[in-house]
Design goal:
Length: 410
């Protein structure tokens, strides 16, 4: 791991845990020392995750590590099952248990006879990559273990896959997608991997008419569901007016219905209004060469950059905050820097630029720039509102306000 001055990129283990904590009706048990779980709890709370009485650790001792004793894990499973009665207990490896090679799957296999809750093991301990790898693994293991096989298709329903708790304002983006699909097609959501969903909802995922994949990490899970249930999927993160129109057309093709023409007309009119930005630029004297820098998760960077370019702004830095391991064919210009100092060097010289990214990125840029937080991590505030999206029509409306502010300021 390279030297980090600010905040390190979360590991795969962290991505797994924050995904599982969003599944109500379950408990997450980390097989490891108390310190690693305690350190993580502040992060999960900052992301707005409700984990009271749902996140536990076994408290490993030195003897457990040296001797490979799993008694604490066995006793913890029985205690949690008896006292809390969860539908599912997710058993997650810590870095310590991953290093010593504890067979967590084997323990869950024979302990399944001793408890009522379904046991699902995750043996990744933070060594396979960053959080994007972990969230992808979590989605895949969930769709392999929890959906019921004997479900009948429910017309006009969908699942959302790829809604990571690390995605800034994810609850708001889900709200916007739900609103768009209800208004355009009359569709209703069954489950969401993984944000504010439940064991019961995931059990019904096979009944959906279509799966909506909003991040590259969700693709593998959608493909598994297609194999199991024959459910088509749409991979699209609807940023900007054109992106939202494309998204609605893709969903329409998947469900065999045309989107509501009034919705399409309304968004089309807003998209055509982007031409007014050129007039605003001329009113400012025409000297500004509009440019932007965007940093965040892959699909956010691609989607937001595309909208900015539609608005006549050249995006000169497209910085992906995580590895591109899960991206089969990365979009042109999107770069991931392994070393923190490399992306810091890209942002610090910026002047009179529209900068969109996380709080650390925004701190690098001086006051001549127009700044907007669109990604995690964030240093101040909390995630509470669920009606302030960056995706969809309303998200484009908000981003357009920031673009206009940039033209007026610069």
């Amino acid at each position: 791991m390279s030297l980090v001055r600010y905040l390190p990129v979360p590991s795969d283990r962290m991505g797994i845990i924050w995904s599982l904590l969003n599944v109500q009706g379950s408990i997450v048990l980390e097989y490891g020392p108390a310190g690693t779980t305690h350190y993580s709890m502040g992060l999960y709370g900052g992301l707005g995750i409700r984990f009271q009485n749902r996140l536990f650790t076994t408290h490993m001792s030195e003897d457990d590590v040296v001797m490979g004793d799993v008694t604490r894990l066995e006793e913890s499973l029985i205690e949690l099952d008896k006292n809390y009665g969860p539908q599912v207990i997710f058993v997650v490896a810590s870095s310590v248990t991953a290093v010593i090679g504890t067979d967590i799957k084997g323990v869950c296999r024979y302990m399944q006879q001793e408890v009522k809750a379904k046991l699902v093991a995750f043996e990744q301990g933070g060594f396979l990559g960053d959080y994007s790898v972990g969230t992808s693994e979590a989605y895949k293991l969930l769709v392999r273990n929890l959906p019921k096989q004997d479900v009948s298709k429910h017309p006009l329903t969908y699942n959302i896959i790829g809604a990571s708790a690390w995605h800034y304002r994810i609850s708001s983006d889900i709200w916007e997608i739900d609103s768009l699909l209800k208004e355009s097609f009359g569709l209703s959501r069954i489950a969401c991997l993984c944000c504010n969903t439940s064991v019961d909802e995931i059990a019904e995922m096979g009944a959906a008419s279509v799966n909506i994949v909003i991040s590259c990490e969700g693709l593998a899970a959608a493909q598994l569901l297609q194999e199991q249930f024959g459910t088509p999927y749409v991979y699209a993160a609807p940023y900007g007016y054109q992106g939202t129109l494309r998204f609605l057309r893709q969903v329409g093709e998947a469900v065999g219905a045309a989107p509501d023409p009034m919705v399409m007309m309304r968004i089309n009119m807003k998209e055509k209004g982007l031409g007014m930005l050129g007039m605003l630029r001329m009113m400012r004297g025409g000297n500004l060469q509009p440019r932007a820098a965007v940093k965040g998760e892959y699909d956010t960077v691609v989607g937001v950059s595309s909208f900015l370019e539609e608005a006549g702004i050249a995006v000169e830095q497209k910085i992906c905050a995580h590895s591109l391991k899960n991206v089969a064919d990365p979009a042109e210009g999107v770069v991931h820097y392994e070393n923190e100092k490399d992306w810091l060097a890209q942002l610090r010289p910026l002047q009179r630029t529209l900068v969109m990214g996380d709080d650390i990125a925004l701190l690098q840029c001086d006051g001549s720039n127009t700044k907007l937080r669109i990604s995690a991590p964030f240093l101040e505030g909390a995630l509470i509102a669920s009606h302030l999206p960056f995706m969809g029509e309303r998200g484009a409306d908000f981003l357009l306000e920031i673009i206009q502010e940039y033209y007026q300021k610069a």
